[in-house]
């Protein structure tokens, strides 16, 4: 496993790209509502990236081995879609929950993040799933510091989510990110403390737990008679799924959440450490 440790210039490049990725979600927030289609949200995102930010969508045309080229500027995962949902013409309905996952490229650096959005009057159960998943992500983030291990992050997330009565998807994980969209290490959202790679300053990676209301099992989305699109993953039992994602830097003293912007939801009350002031460059 070769983990790329960023130097000062790389960290500054990541800081800018990650802030811009978060600002795409800030921009999209008022448009997410009953009746809007995820394809329209995707169109708005791409227009903002290209015309306002001067960024590039990392997902358009992204094609890892064995996958078709991804066709959109973001991923939109609604209700029982766990991840990689492709934007389409179906309007969002009252009570839906949707994850918007945005990755931008700026000056060769990738910023990667996602948020959950609640559409209209969602059920108490759906809202709780979204909130617990948000808190689970932060339970992992606060474990980040030099000398800690990746297993500490996964264990914190798994323990918190399962104690709340939910399950953690095992097949997908966080990842290193930098000049490439996906780098080492893989960041599991479950595991044992004291295991895995040791964290060192300059590492940048995502923490992005996918938490299910039902069982943790997943499958390809082949509902109805339509062919599988090669990307969309759903819960096997059709239960709701939620995901939140931040890109995190390991600092000399702890962590810095790079994907924070003016519209980012504030950390939970249990987060007592303070990240540095947001970069304005």
How would you describe what is shown here?
By secondary structure, the protein is an alpha+beta fold. The chain has a single domain (8-257), classed as Alpha-Beta Complex (Creatine Amidinohydrolase). The chain has helices spanning 8-28, 38-53, 124-141, 150-163; strands spanning 56-57, 75-78, 81-83, 97-106, 109-118, 167-168, 174-176, 183-187, 204-207, 210-212, 218-220, 233-235, 241-243, 246-250, 255-257. The strands form 5 sheets. Strands 1, 2, 4 and 5 form a 4-stranded antiparallel beta sheet that branches. Helix 1 (8-28) crosses helix 2 and helix 3 (124-141) packs antiparallel against helix 4 (150-163). The protein is globular, with a radius of gyration of 18 Å. The two termini are 32 Å apart. The relative contact order is 0.19.
Summarize the structure.
By secondary structure, this protein is α+β, with helices and mostly antiparallel strands. It has four helices and 15 strands. The strands form five sheets. Strands 1, 2, 4 and 5 form a four-stranded antiparallel β-sheet that branches.
Q: In the CATH hierarchy, what is the class?
A: Alpha Beta
CATH architecture descriptor: Alpha-Beta Complex
CATH homologous superfamily descriptor: Creatinase/methionine aminopeptidase superfamily
Total DSSP helices: 4
Radius of gyration computed on alpha carbons = 18 Å
Helix proportion of residues, in percent?
A: 10-25%
Beta-strand content bin: 15-25%
Key features of this structure:
281 residues, alpha+beta, Creatine Amidinohydrolase, 4-stranded antiparallel β-sheet, 3-stranded antiparallel β-sheet, 4 helices, globular, disordered C terminus
